[in-house]
Amino acid sequence: MNKTDFLILALLFAVGFALRTVGLDWGYFHGDERINDAARVLTGDLVPGQHFYPPLFNYINGVAFAGLFLVGKVAGWWADSSAFRDAYFTDPTVFYLTARGVTAAFGAAMSPLFYLLARTFSQPRLMAGVTAVLAGIAAPAITFSYIAKGDTPLAAATVLTILAFSLRVLHGQKRYDVLLGVAACLALSFKQSIVFLLVPLLVAHIVVLAPKMGWKGYLVSLGRSLAVIVVLWPILNIGIVLDLENFIGYQKIQMVMSIQNDASWQGGLRQWLALATHPHWGIGWVMLLGFLLYPAVVFSPIFRSQERQLHIALWAVVLVGMAITLFVVRERQPEHLWISFFVLMQFFAVFGLTEIAGHARNPLRLGAAGVLAASGIVSVVALIGLWEQARAVPMSHKVSDILHRHFADDRILSLPALDIPKHPMAQEIERKRIDRLAKKYEVVMPQEATPRPDETEEDALFWMSTPAVMFGLENATEDELREVIKPHAWPLQPEEWTLEYWANQGVTVFVVADLPYLLNETPSRLFRSFYAEINNTCERAYSVPAVKPLFLERDVVVFKCPAHPE
């Protein structure tokens, strides 16, 4: 690699990072953005409050928060660590933005990694640059960079793993065994579900390398990579090592959430196809078709890259990894589940098209170039749509105005979290509920660090959050979770899901987001019956359309109900 390549890598990263910071403050805090665990790292507490995912991303964000403290101190934002802590509890926005900036950096790193992968596969600079740009601006690679979760870092680490494996196959140096171990360990430390891709990658590792090296040399090579993982993993996941029993308990909950034995293959496949072709969460029909046809390109005379066997092996790794994941999750497919697979699919589709555009004869060459150009246009249009939503005024402002103007004296139950100060009496009801459930299930709640207000804020309303359940636990029973219940990961309480229950507590206003889903699509029978009761009994007072559907928003309906339904 020479100076020109370094400049290209730097430019790809800089542009990629800039694209991901437009509208980074998109108006809400995502419930999966665990900045509280990252902030605890600064106090020396390395054990996360929840063990659903490995803690490495928390540690990285904790380091970023330390950098934020230094920058803020120089800039005069806070004088000392006490003022820094007060800023966190007063308005944590800058902490969320810092964590999102870290996520954006991981997302931006994918384009340079794609460039290196294309160069490893012997593409010239121009073609590799086109591949890197079009693969790097794949919709999921940018959309999920706006949420401070481990999914985007996982995708970057997965691409690094594929790059390290390819370097090991094509160049054979021992250092690439070490790099492969580091990359795989990073991926596992961001999200353990990547094991569904690493298992077929291990098979490919054996199939591709063992015949070349002989079994003795191969086992030494594999052992070198595994040794790196064994040494590095406990360091990157020290919070798990320090709290292993609790981690295992959370993984049992994760199994209940993720494994859908009663769901159909057909439904899961349809859902996957809808996500894969979604304009912001997936890669679209053209890139999907390009990925599926990649072997035809590899075995064609125009393919100039080295090691056809390696390309087919990597293509199969992605395909088999997706099949394994789909077999496990069936219809439980959150949008972020597939990002690591989708960005690799986009890369192989684009790589195949650039090979055709660079080496085939017309009209095939022009056709491939046209598809690449169209793909770039589609990605730019999707990106502009993403920016428009990110920068739009949140609908929560309108919902807040409606509630203040028309229902200031009512008791309110809201499914979306409201950007409205909460009356202390409402807070007390919610705390008592949590304490009651903690006692019922014999769990110890984590210490609450947020200062509680002593008096009512001027614009506070008496509103409470609709009791929540973690995604995947909607139909979980107490028997399924009895031995593994953790704070806030308990089953639904049937008595809470009747209109009479809330009427008896004086609730007369219900704020409901995504009503069609709750009436017709949710897997929870309790949800369907509860919201059908509200829909049939109460008056639809106001409707507010979503303006940021990519950023948590769903259409909201405000219901006004009689105090005592008949």
What features would you highlight for this structure?
transferase, mannosyltransferase activity, transmembrane helix, mainly alpha, 566 residues
Description:
The protein has helices at 3-19, 35-41, 56-75, 81-90, 93-120, 125-136, 139-143, 151-171, 175-190, 195-236, 238-242, 244-258, 265-276, 284-292, 294-298, 308-329, 339-359, 364-391, 396-406, 424-441, 478-481, 499-503, 515-520, 525-537, and strands at residues 411-414, 463-465, 507-513, 539-544, 556-560. The protein is mostly helical and 566 residues long. The chain has two domains: 3-390, no CATH class; 396-560, no CATH class. The chain has a five-stranded mixed β-sheet, sandwiched between helices. Helix 16 packs antiparallel against helix 17 (339-359). The mean pLDDT is 94.
Radius of gyration: 25 Å
How many strands appear in the DSSP assignment?
5
Strand content: under 5%
H/E series:
HHHHHHHHHHHHHHHHHHHEHEHHEHHEE
Question: Uncertain runs with pLDDT below 50, 5 residues or more?
Answer: none
Secondary structure class reads mainly alpha
Shape: globular
Give the overall pLDDT as a whole number. Answer: 94
